[in-house]
Here is the input.
Amino acid sequence: MTAMITHIALHVADVEACIAFYRDVCALEIVHERAAGSGDGRVVWMAAAGQETSFVLVLLPGGPGAQRAAGDFSHIGFAVARPAGVDEMAEVGRARGCLMMEPVDEGYPVGRFVCLQDPDGNIVEFSYGQPLGPGASDGSAE
Here is the structure.
């Protein structure tokens, strides 16, 4: 059996705040929404333009907020189109008060990355030069 990853679902404390973050910071748009099964809040699917049928982020209401143990680096990764995009995302994080980690360059295959925190406390990484996005073509990201 071959399986394909299609979504990640996050059970968040504040769906509306998370929608705003993923829309404004990550450029995701709502592609589906419905009332939550409990009738309290809404379930929202968000995707990057052109990826609506291949991968979505699902926001579920009523979560407890992200609760990470010390050293837990669980995160959602986004690729940016150029190395300077990492620094631009750091500026966005500073301006919004959600910068979690300054930009770091660890070379291939990790590349250059910065980490922000969404309103629920989830880590969101923006990178350039990893094997899964821009700058990956020859393994020698700028």
In short: The chain has two domains: 7-60, 75-128. The first strand starts at residue 7 and ends at 11.
